[in-house]
Amino acid sequence: MGSGPAQEATVPERPEPVGGRPVRRYLILGATAVSGSLLVGLWRHSPISVLLVAVSTVGAATIAVLERRTPRLGPRPIVAAIGLLFVVAVSVAPRTSNDLWSYTIYGRMVSVYGDSPYDKVPVDFRSDPFFANVSPRWQHRGSVYGPAFVGFAAAGTALAGDSPLATRLFFQLTAAAAAIAVLWLIWRRTRSAAALAWLGLHPLLGPVIVNGGHNDIAIGLAVLVAAMLVRRRRGWAAGIVLGVAALIKLTTMLALVGVVLWGWRRRERRVAVTATVAATAVLVIGYLPFLGGASRVLTGADKTLTPASPFNPLGAALLGHDAWRDIPQPLVPNDTLIAIFYASLVVVAVLALATAWRAAQAREPEGAIGAATGSYTVAAEYSFPWYAGWALPVLADHEPTALAWVVWVQAAVMLAALKLPIHPSTTILDTTLRGTITYAAPILVLIAFVVAGLRTTRHGWTDRPSHPSVGATPGGITTPR
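Given the sequence above, the corresponding structure tokens read:
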């Protein structure tokens, strides 16, 4: 008998695994919607807002972990979600912080009045149209920011004039540009959609932009660039970049600690020495004309406790206050707060040296630099969520280390602390949330940082992810899908 036409073998379609593309797209959509609601100020200080931070954090972490294990999405939907959040962030006025208007008044002291924000304070300019927007806590304080940022603010306010919209957009758009540059460098470095999601979808990044264009993301960009230069053994260039960043905030010099320890342990001492000389020279030259006024401002600044500091339990025991909220004038120093301030400096210094020394055994410098800068975020008595922007860019990777995850989680904890109701109450819900977020969680995070830092292995940043992102070729060129 003749045989009929050969039947084509059919291969049954494999079902989409749990956590496949549809699920991940819904996760991105949900995380973006929740983060967007935080940016526009819905339920600004309430248990609902705290819950939204938690949901957004879990969503971002889930997407990053799923994309690391089995890449499915590629960068496009993640970049689209991040872009949408950035658009929202620059479309609304500040919600959680008024730092933008402090930047403005300090800049206008120079550009409009020809005075130094290290010798004058905002209250000296009551007639300025922006003075009323400055937080009362900072109206009697000179600029705690370095000369580079004051010059930047002066240039911006000169361009914006008396327009509140133009002024706001100047700071927000430049912060957005710095965040975009950070994410671009991370993508160029890792070709990993997981790394983009890990940082770009973190609920912290939007508030960094919307709440005054915090300069901390610019510091994070500088630290990341410096780490890349150290990788190429360009110590002089890395030191100059860190020196300029330290002229924004002096705490940037913690990154130099990581550079030096890495260079010492990896026998790259020329890199360590040249970076130190260059950073110190830039810092000295930049501060020299303003040394008297700037030193007076800095020595009298920030001796208080912020809501997610690990020193809150000690402060509550000694002062009887609830994480900065019950003190009428929290920036007024007293002996107890000054003692806690110096104790926190010691803890930060020891933590930075110990964890960065351990991380410096890795082939790459990013771990040591991230450990040193992240130590401030988790251990200082005065720390805000955007301070994590110093360390998170350099710690972002296709497969972040345990220490990187600790800093990542701490940023969310600090953000949730700021979303608590402004005034404490005696309700069970408020007491539980406040006790968990402002007392228990910071201590647990600090312990986790110590454990993760001291258990750091030689694993560091990878030159390529072990599972390249969908749509990326080994050479880094994306292919159409």
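Residues 1-16, 459-481 have pLDDT under 50 and may be disordered. Try to locate this feature in the token string yourself.
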